[in-house]
Amino acid sequence: MINRRLLYLNTHRLTAYRWQxxxxxxxxxxxxxxxxxxxFASYLRAHHNSHFLLLANVSEEGYQLETIPFLxxxxxxxxxxxxxxxxxxxxxxxxATSLGYEKDKRKNEKLLxxxxxxxxxxxxxxxxxxxxxxxxxxxxxxxQLGSTLLQKxxxxxxxxxxLTQQDHSIRETYLVNGQTQFxxxxxxxxxxxxxxxxxxxxxAGKLQQYLIGQRLIGRSDALPVYVLAHPQAITTVxxxxxxxGNLLFEILDxxxxxRQINLKTMPDDSRSELLFLHLLxxxxxxxxxxxxxxxxDYRISQIRAGLIALGSIALLAATLFASKELLQTHTLNQxxxxxxxxxxxxxxxxxxxxxxxxxxxxxxxxxxxITSRYGELQAQQQLPHTAYRLVASALEQxxxxxxxxxxxxxxxxxxxxxxxxxxxxxxxITLKGQxxxxxxxTTRQTLAVLDEFxxxxxxxxxxxxxxxxxxxxIDSSQALRGGDKDDSAxxxxxxxxxxxxxxxx
Length: 505
Description:
39% of the residues lie in helices and 26% in strands. The protein contains 12 helices and 17 strands. The strands form 4 sheets. It has a 5-stranded mixed sheet with strand order 3-2-1-4-8, with helices on both faces. Strands 11-10-9-12-13 form a 5-stranded mixed sheet.
C-alpha cells in the first residue's frame, strides 16, 4: 500500500507528517528560506514512493459568488476559466464549485469561485516537489475541510459558522448546506486560554456583521456557531462565548471529536490542524487547487500503481492456476501409484490361484488361443431346424411331391450349371424326391407342379433354389407341347433340388 504523507503549510513554515492507521507522526519542519527548501527537496527524494497532500492555512484566500448561463462541456469550462481570470488574475491555484441551478431565471448556474491568491508563497515548495518528481495528490485549504468535519461530528450545517484555532490565528468559516462560502483568518494577539476565548466571541460577532453587510444572512436569522477547543479550555471558552442576539454557540471538545473521527493522536492544545490533517488523509475533498501540471507525477504514480495491481492480480491468478494443476498432478500420481500397487497385488493373487490349477501341459498363450477359437466355433454353430420347417411347409402344400432323401450341411454345395456356388459358411439343403401324378397328366402339368414347389421353397431373398436333376430328359432340339402325352405316364419322376441359404455373419 502506498504511504500517505501530509504537508501542512502556514504563513511561516511547512511541516511534514506521516499518517498511518489514524496516527499522525511529525517527520520534519522547514522554514521559509533557501537552505530549508533544499532540505525539503532531499526529504521528498527520500520518500519518493509516497503520495503527498498539501494542506494550506494562509490568509490569502478569495471567495466569489457568480452566476453563469446554462452551458455544457468545453463552453462551460471556458467561461469558468474566464471568470476566474477576472476575479483572481495571476494565480493558477483556483477552483470552481457548482451551487446548483436557478429555477426561475433560465436555469442559470450558480458558482462559488475559490482561489489561493498568493501563488508566490507556494512557488518554492511546488518547485521542490516538481524537481524531486514527488507525487502531489493535491493542494487543499482548511476551509474546504470545515464541512467534512461537521458532517463527521453529525452537526447540522444548513447555515452556520465554524471557529477553529490554527497556529497563531483563528479560522472563521461560513458554511451553507455543507459548502464553504466564505472563510478568513484573524490574527491571535493573546495566546492564553482567556485571550483565545475572548477572540472566539469577538470574531463571531464581527463575522456576523460582515455577512449581514454582504447580505448573505438577514439581521434576524439565527446563526449557530461551532467552536472547537481543547478540553482544558472548554470552561473558559464557554464563559466567554455567550448566546447574544442571533448567535448560538456550541463548544466542541477537540479530544472527544478526535476520537469520534478515529484520530489517535490527540491535540496538545486548542489548535485543530491535526484533526484537519486526519480528515484530509481519510476523506479528502473532491476538488483541490493544484493544476494538472502540478499533479503530473501523481498521475504517473497512479498509472504505475494500476499496472502493478494488474500484474499482481495476473500473478495471483497464475499462481492459483499452477497450484490447482500441481494439486491435480499430485492427486493423479497418488491414484496412479494406487493402481500400480493394486495391479501388482492382483497379479500376485492370480499367480497364487493359478498355481493351484491342475497342469495341462500347455502354456497360457496356447490355452487362450484354443478357448478363443472354441468361442468362435460356438458362435458359428447352426442347427437344421429352420431348414426342416421350410421343407415341411412346402411339402404340406405340394401333395404330389414325395420326398425320398434330405441332406443338410454347412459348406460347399454341388455346383449347378450357370449358377454361382455358395459361400463357405452357407447352409446347403439337398432334396431328392419324386413327382407322382395321375396317368392323364401332361409334361407341362408335371413341370408346373415342380415350379410351384420351388416357389414355396424360395420364400426368402436369401434363399437360392436350383434344380440339379430334372424330372424329364429334355433336349433343346425337341419341342415341348401341352397336349403331348408321355408313354410312361403315371410313373414317378425323380428330381433333385438344392437350396442354399445365406446365413447372417
